[in-house]
Specification:
By secondary structure, the chain is mainly alpha-helical. It is 55% helix and 4% strand. The longest helix has 27 residues.
């Protein structure tokens, strides 16, 4: 009776119809859309400027210009490598279901349309990387390499969280071109060299070659994991587990004050020479490697942050998120930017200290720290706060803030001190004379 009732019930039929229409398994998805909380803070940071790669932004009117470039690159590669387009289509067709499941959102493309998109977009990426690494492959009339702004826009767009195709697709196409016996070292080096110009600081240089198609989800994931400095790869560090245990035992940490306040408390700043993430406190000096601020920096940082929010491979730390939070603490105003820029910690290529200040004041909005137990800079923060809590340093900070914060204040203080000395001497002389 219950089976008959369920078949006749309209609600049950609707639910079963919706269940049957599910075409993906979110738990194995690797390409997501940015959730509303992050997107509303700065929507432009997550949208491509010139090119759509993959299905999420496909067909947008402002991105259609690059479709001709994609087809031109496809024809060029086929002629140079003496390949037939059917070889690429045949290689990807058995992977169609796997490709579709890689996307968290349901895709409107039918199987043929999806495979066509993967072939055209994937070969464009491979050809672009090849031309970037080897200038001999470039056409003299290629506008991408003749217009610097277009190349920079492509580098930015190909690192967007939503603008991705599965990396196993690129690897499959790459193996057809180079041969299956060819390892992925050339592909890895081409990817990293292509994106290095827009990464905001020095990262890992000993790039780890793996089976890229299974090790990483997409280009953004590959760059993110390979960019991490060696000192943060705690799994490979014999003392890594001990370090994590210390952080877990100490647990508590508090955010630090801005650069202006820290300077008033006696903290000094010095430019470091390690990777971007190698921040340390030595005596009273915060050593921070240079951060390069360009027109693409905010977009790159925001997309690396959102990738950390979704990716499950970051077991202990959110490295980029924690680093950005560090800079957010240090920068409250253009004056803080000026302090860090003066010592070489910030290299501001945008020309506006106020713009850099605004960027860091907003960049962590709606970002949830998933690894609350482990904050990568907890030891540094604890050391800075311990220094600032000492009574002598609090007094010095108050003196600098309220009495010697300008040349006129220093002159007034000196004049007052001189007057006090003269009054004291006059009193002594008067007593002696009496």
């Amino acid at each position: 009776m219950s089976e008959i009732h369920e078949e006749e019930d309209a609600v049950c039929m609707t639910i079963w119809r919706n269940l049957n229409e599910i075409s993906r398994i979110p738990s194995i998805s690797s390409v997501f859309k940015v959730h509303h909380g992050l997107r509303r803070v700065n929507e432009r940071a997550y949208n491509p400027d010139v090119i759509a790669i993959g299905p999420y932004h496909h067909g947008h009117e402002n991105l259609k210009m690059m479709q001709d470039f994609k087809l031109h690159y496809l024809v060029s590669l086929l002629k140079r490598e003496n390949r037939h387009i059917g070889a690429f289509v045949d290689a990807l067709r058995p992977l169609e279901r796997h490709i579709r499941r890689s996307y968290a959102q349901a895709l409107p493309q039918d199987p043929d349309q999806l495979i066509e998109m993967m072939v055209v977009d994937g070969i464009f990426v491979i050809e672009l990387l090849g031309r970037f690494s080897n200038p001999l492959l470039r056409d003299p009339t290629d506008l991408i390499f003749n217009m610097e702004w277009m190349l920079t826009s492509l580098q930015r767009d190909l690192l967007l969280f939503e603008n991705q195709i599965p990396l196993f697709v690129i690897c499959e196409l790459f193996e057809i071109i180079e041969g299956e016996e060819h390892d992925h070292r050339d592909l890895l080096e081409s990817v990293m060299k292509f994106f290095l110009p827009i990464l905001p600081g020095r990262g890992e240089r000993g790039w780890e070659v793996k089976n890229l198609g299974t090790a990483y989800n997409h280009l953004l994931g590959l760059v993110s994991h390979q960019w991490l400095p060696a000192t943060t790869k705690l799994k490979q560090n014999p003392d890594g587990d001990a370090y994590l245990s210390v952080l877990e035992e100490r647990g508590g940490w508090e955010f630090i004050r801005c650069a202006t306040t820290l300077v008033e408390s006696g903290i000094k700043f010095k430019k470091g020479d390690g990777t971007l993430f190698d921040v340390s406190l030595v005596n009273k000096t915060l050593i921070i490697p240079p951060l390069i601020i360009t027109c693409t920096t905010e977009s790159v940082l925001r997309n690396l942050i959102v990738y950390e929010q979704y990716d499950q491979q970051f077991e202990c730390f959110n490295f980029v998120t924690d680093y950005v939070k560090l800079m957010d603490c240090l920068i409250d105003s253009p004056k803080d930017v000026e302090i860090l820029r003066h010592v070489g910690i910030l290299v501001n290529c945008t020309g506006s200290d106020e713009g850099v200040s605004d960027m860091f004041n907003n960049i962590c909005d709606s970002v949830v720290r998933l690894k609350k137990k482990f904050f990568f800079y907890a030891e540094v923060f604890n050391g800075v706060n311990e220094h600032c809590r000492r009574r002598h340093n609090r007094w010095m900070a108050n003196l600098r803030r309220n009495y010697i914060n300008s040349p006129w204040a220093i002159a007034s203080l000196c004049a007052g001190f001189a007057l006090l000395v003269l009054t004291f001497l006059q009193t002594i002389f008067t007593m002696i004379h009496s």
